Amino acid sequence: MALDTIAQLSPEETALEILNQLGAIGKWLQAIGIIFLLWLIFQVTNFIINGKRISKLNSIENRLETLDKKLNKLSGTKSSR
Question: What is the pTM of this model?
Answer without folding.
Answer: 0.58
